[in-house]
Write a structure and sequence with these properties.
The structure holds three protein chains of three kinds. By secondary structure, chain B is mostly helical. Chain B has seven helices and no strands. Chain B has two domains: 67 residues; 86 residues, no CATH class. The model of chain B has no long low-confidence stretch (mean pLDDT 79). Chain C has 21 helices and two strands. The longest helix of chain C is centred in the N-terminal third of the chain and has 34 residues. Chain C is globular. The chains are: A alpha/beta, B mainly alpha, C mainly alpha.
Chain lengths: 315, 154, 504
């Protein structure tokens, strides 16, 4: 009964003519541009967050995908958007990587940090029926056959691609990197056996690992996964390497600070919402909240770090 | 009629050539690691070949070809009407942001109706006004679609 | 299999509760209104009603969202038929014969056939889902980059000449479409291409701008160029009897509908812009199979019945990869993914097992949605058809306003409107010189994906072109394409020698 009343009231309110006050934020839905294809890590996490934040913000939060160029297409569009708080984008590690690789129209400085949501390690997945049973098998094969193992990623020059490149250096091997338009397509290609391995970050591929179709052959974190306690990290197996990605929300430069505060507070509530927490747990993602200033500092230091790392790798 | 067709073919050829030339200015790479320019270059060359084939086929067949034409499209009236109509559309687009949606829609309809020969001003103004009002309420207020507000502020 | 049937019946029980029926109805109505406006597609509609779904349980929420999705599809066909304005990719083919039918006073039968055909296809689609879904989803995985490339090239070449006009001209338009598709950011490296420094062009040229421009605005301009007497005309005013399909119409449409449903279902499983490809493929096949191919392009009901059915069943089977693999292949299904996440339901291989009531409840409600739309739309057919009674000189300005409004709502960009006008001018010229717009649009949609698949394949194979022929599925498509291209040439030679034989 209550639900029916809610619905009728909602529809009724749409019919009524209401003047729009510019001072009240938000007066319409907020859009999050995800610069990757649907189904990837960033996409899934922010869709889940958008779902729970809507009620705290008072207006719907909608996710829009604009894939291409390892994030370049989506970020360029977000950068051009009006800094009125209605268009946000997912600020993730590739934002601080891309500008070092490719001449982009943007850097992290063209955006204002709003909130950081997760911090997850990178990992490599292979099919359960792959010939390599352990990391050692995998790396031995790679050493004997350089440039032969195909490793998919969510975009050339993007986060997981760089993690894969950095891992190559740390392990002393060479892979054949195949770019896709996002985590979703790259995992699909692995499932179909068209590539040998895929470089991802949770929750990409997690469902399939749970179902037994894929397995984690390399885990680039400091600690083991809560959900898969039997999977050792690469550090434990002798390769001193750990790298991950952070994912947060950013707004175009010039968005007023009070709007940013409203957004941050609403999204924080969305993060704390029990439904979101359950989703995050199911997806094996690691929640890591940071406010606007701390997030801004993180982006700045990552930008420096990757600048140096890329020069190292390119040597 | 064939001269039209040949002209069309040449225009397409030039477009293909422009594409190919512009792509040469971008990194081509190798097949193993294709660069940004490779695909457009291949397309440009393909288009040039197709249009050459097309033009030669026309020349070869000479007077024998009867080109199928759309009977509706071929009837032509005075071009003035078309130019005014299209011109009005261009103007409306140019001032869309400044004038704002309700005003632009009103003026656009008014001018277009006039261009097509509607001479009764009262009817024109009435229709344009009512339509603009309905559109405003439907799209801006009810569906909450962000359409530009002009200097009249709505 | 019987378990699935059992689940489906349970699903109907859930979907048919008064509450859920109400949500479905609201969704369908909103969806239809949104679909009628060119430019706004199902995505915006779903976005609008998401807040209302927060307080609902997941099944009801998705039922409403699915209703919007379908409603928008139905609405899109309406503007294609009446005004030659395609609201979204899948409506382009409907413009070709649907609009011609409307011009001849047969808008009513066209609209009704769309509704009925879609409904029948939906029914068939449901059976497909029940009986063959999971194994088919696995089959879709066998498509890797080389298979995609070959499939797309094949589909591309075959479907370029969808209307049967000059093959060469259609291919040229297709390549032009491919080139236009490269404008923007290179999908693999991220560098800008053909943008001449403009930030607006960095995102490429919006498909909707090209579609509405070439078809809608182009058509308007062609009409405007006529002497004023012609503009006084209204389209033939249909009598009441003529508003609905005749028995003959039914007889002609039933096979295309069945074929379309089958084609759409199969095509919908392959990741990518399936509904579009399904409509083109259905049109092509109907034209080849018909005893009167010359009627196509002038108002053949088969050209409307087949593609619309294909469209509907492709949308049905597009849900399969989402539910079975957990991977959405199209934006509307991505939104449904979001809705699932609202309630902690992560789609993936385990979804059907863990939440059968959700899965089958949604399937059942999709079907109910189809039914509701049929009932909603049929009575409105006379109303819509009567829109065409408006004399052209009043109708045309309204159409222009309609197009400009719709275009702006896609990206809030005046630049898009400029693009629409530019392509409107181009569409005008193309009509004058007998070039087809459909191949160009198909190329615009497929082009970027084609390029990605091409480059990925070569990266995997280290530059070896053999990768396209070494794999069986890929090889099959390439062979089919070769046969398709060479066949007309062989037939021509055969005919010439035959003629020579008789003369002597």
């Amino acid at each position: 009964m209550g639900k029916k009343v809610f619905i009728s009231l909602f529809v009724l309110s749409l019919i009524m003519v209401m003047p729009i006050h510019a001072a009240d934020f938000p007066t319409k839905e907020v859009q999050i541009i995800i610069p990757w294809a649907a189904g990837g890590a960033t996409d899934l996490i922010f869709r889940a967050l958008a779902a729970t934040t809507g009620k705290y913000l008072g207006k719907a939060v909608v996710v829009v995908n604009k894939p291409g160029g390892a994030g370049a297409v989506g970020y360029t569009e977000a950068m051009k958007a009006q800094p009125d708080g209605y268009t946000l984008t997912s600020g993730i590690t590739p934002l601080t990587i891309l500008p070092h690789n490719v001449k982009t129209a943007f850097t992290y400085k063209d955006f204002e940090p709003v909130i950081n949501v997760v911090s997850d390690p990178g990992m490599f997945l292979v099919r359960s029926d792959a010939p390599w049973k352990s990391l050692k098998d995998f790396l031995d094969y790679a050493k004997k056959n350089p440039d032969m193992i195909t490793v998919g990623n969510s975009g050339a020059g993007g986060g997981v691609h760089l993690i894969a490149l950095a891992f190559e250096k740390a392990a002393g091997v060479k892979f054949n990197h195949i770019p896709f338009t996002g985590g979703g397509p790259s995992v699909t290609a692995l499932l179909g056996g068209h590539i040998n391995a895929v470089s991802v970050s949770p929750p990409e591929g997690i469902e399939h690992v749970k179902a037994g179709k894929l397995k984690i052959i390399a885990l680039f974190s400091e600690k083991r996964f809560e959900m898969f306690p039997d999977v050792p990290t690469v550090k434990e197996q002798g390769v001193d390497f750990a790298m991950g990605q952070w994912r947060g929300l950013i707004a175009p430069k010039g968005t007023p600070p009070d709007v940013i505060k409203k957004l941050h507070d609403a999204f924080k509530q969305g993060m704390d919402d029990p439904v979101f927490r359950k989703n995050a747990k199911d997806m094996a993602v690691n929640l890591h909240h940071l406010g606007p200033e701390a997030f801004g500092k993180l982006m700045a230091s990552e930008h420096e770090l990757f600048g140096k790392l890329i020069k190292e790798i390119k040597k | 009629m064939n001269r039209d067709e040949i002209a069309g073919g040449i225009v397409i050829f030039l477009f293909g050539m422009a594409t190919a030339l512009l792509s040469l200015g971008m990194p081509i790479g190798t097949f193993r690691m294709a660069g940004t320019g490779m695909f457009p270059l291949l397309l440009g060359i393909l288009l040039m070949s197709l249009s050459c084939l097309f033009v030669f086929k026309l020349l070869y067949q000479g007077k024998k070809t009867i080109v199928k034409r759309d009977s509706v499209a071929m009837v032509s009236g005075p071009p003035v009407q078309l130019i005014l109509f299209f011109g009005t559309m261009v103007l409306a687009t140019a001032f869309f942001n400044q004038l704002g949606y309700p005003l632009t829609s009103f003026l656009l309809l008014l001018m277009l109706l006039r261009t097509l020969g509607m001479k009764r001003w009262t009817f024109n103004i009435f229709l344009s006004f009512m339509t603009a009002v309905v559109c405003y309420f439907l799209f801006v207020q009810w569906l909450k679609i962000p359409l530009p507000k002009g200097w009249i502020g709505i | 299999m019987f378990e699935s049937l059992q689940h489906l019946i349970n699903g109907f029980a859930i979907a048919a509760t008064v509450q859920n029926l109400l949500y479905c109805l609201i969704g369908c109505i909103v969806g239809t209104i949104i679909g009628v406006l060119p430019g706004i597609g199902p995505i915006a509609g779903i976005a609008l009603l998401i807040p209302a779904t927060f307080s609902l349980n997941p099944t009801s929420a998705i039922i409403m969202l699915a209703g919007i999705y379908y409603g928008a599809m139905y609405g899109g066909s309406t503007t294609s038929i009446l005004l030659n304005v395609p609201g979204e990719t899948a409506s382009v083919i409907t413009c070709i014969d649907g609009y011609q039918m409307a011009q001849k006073g047969r808008a009513g039968p066209a609209l009704a056939t769309c509704a009925i055909g879609s409904f029948i296809a939906g029914t068939i689609g449901i059976f497909g889902l029940v009986f063959i879904a999971p194994p088919l989803a696995e089959a879709a995985l066998a498509f890797g980059p080389p298979e995609y490339f070959s499939l797309m090239v094949f589909g591309f070449i075959v479907l370029s000449n969808v209307t049967g006009a000059s093959l060469l001209k259609s291919l040229m338009m297709a390549v032009v479409g491919l080139i236009i598709g490269t404008i923007g950011i290179d999908p693999v490296t991220g560098d800008a291409r053909f943008t001449f420094g403009s930030i607006s062009l960095l995102s490429g040229i919006e498909f909707v701008a090209v579609a509405i421009g070439l078809f809608g605005i182009g058509e308007v301009l062609i009409n405007v160029e006529k002497p004023s007497e012609m503009l006084e005309q209204k389209v033939l005013v249909p009598r009441l009897r003529e508003l609905y399909p005749t028995l003959q119409d039914f007889k002609k449409s039933i096979s295309p509908i069945l074929r379309g449903a089958g084609i759409g279902f199969g095509v919908g499983l392959v990741p990518g812009p399936a509904p579009v490809i399904a409509t083109y493929a259905s049109y092509m096949i109907e034209r080849k199979v018909s005893k009167h191919p010359e009627e196509f392009g002038k108002g053949a009901i088969e050209g409307v019945a087949g593609p619309e059915s294909a469209n509907n069943s492709a949308c049905q089977s597009a849900f399969i990869p989402l539910f079975v693999l957990g991977i959405p292949f199209a934006p509307p299904t991505a939104i449904l993914l979001g809705a699932l996440l609202i309630h902690g339901v992560s789609p993936g291989p385990m979804l059907i097992g863990q939440h059968p009531q959700l899965f089958w409840g949604v399937i059942a409600s999709m079907y109910i949605g189809n039914f509701i739309l049929l009932i909603l739309n049929l009575p409105f057919v006379p109303l819509f058809a009567n829109i065409l009674r408006i004399p052209k000189k009043v109708l045309l300005p309204l159409v222009i306003l309609f197009c400009i409004t719709g275009m702006y709502t896609v990206n809030n960009s005046v630049f898009d409107i400029w693009m629409m006008l530019l392509f409107g001018a181009m569409g005008f010229l193309m009509r004058k010189w007998a070039y087809e717009g459909a191949p160009l649009l198909l190329a615009l949609v497929l082009g970027p994906k084609l390029e990605i698949a091409f480059r990925q394949s070569l990266m995997i194979s280290h530059g070896d072109f053999g990768v396209f022929v070494n794999r069986p599925i890929s090889m099959v498509f390439l062979l089919a394409m070769a046969i398709f291209l060479i066949f007309p040439a062989i037939r021509l030679m055969f005919k010439k020698s035959k003629k020579g034989g008789i003369k002597s």
